[in-house]
Amino acid sequence: MFYLLILVVAASRFLPHPPNVACVGALGLFAGCYLVGRRAYLVPLAVLLLSDLAGHLLSVPGMGFYNPVTMALVYAGALAAVPVGRWMRSNQSKLRLPAGSLAASSLFFLISNFGVWLGGWYPMTGFGLLACYTSAIPFFGYTIAGDLLFTFLLFGAYQWSSQPLTLQRRAFAKANV
């Protein structure tokens, strides 16, 4: 199941979408919640690495390999969703999905944009760091929207698919009446 998710999410990065609206953060939450050990970190890492490698080889604009410092911190920002997913597993609050999603989005914003600043895109001053984060604010809204959407889709689909088959058949039958 998770190998299929890796391929689907990696492929989804190639579909047309607004900037920063991606499944990777939600997949990190999902892996952190449902996988144990290091495998949870390998899932989003594999998605990023496979899709960046394909993007690089196929010369897809906006994908592929770039400044190593920036890239490492973008990957670290995506991997930061895994411990948040672990928290979500232990927290059964009704707000765990939106809270976890917002936390993962915020961590990605802070870590990845720090990487953009360290990568030399802005002056290496306090004002440069402030300019970097300020310039990234519009993308943060897209990150939040994408993470919320895909978190609810992934967790909802998983919960629905794990219900007894008879419940699924009844729901499907009612939907087709």
Number of strands: 0
Q: Helix coverage percent of residues?
A: over 70%
Question: How large is the radius of gyration?
Answer: 18 Å
- Cα shape: globular
Mean pLDDT: 89
Q: List segments where confidence is low: pLDDT < 50 over at least 5 consecutive residues.
A: none
Distance between the termini: 30 Å
How many structural domains in the coordinates? 1
Helical run tally: 8
List the secondary-structure elements in sequence, H or E. HHHHHHHH
Please report which band the strand proportion falls in: under 5%, 5-15%, 15-25%, 25-35%, 35-45% or over 45%. Answer: under 5%
The class by helix and strand makeup works out as mainly alpha
What profile does the largest beta sheet have?
none
Explain what the structure shows.
This protein is an all-alpha fold. It has one domain. It has eight helices and no strands. It has helices at 2-12, 24-34, 39-57, 68-79, 81-90, 96-121, 126-161, 165-175. α5 (81-90) runs antiparallel to α6 (96-121). The model has no long low-confidence stretch (mean pLDDT 89).
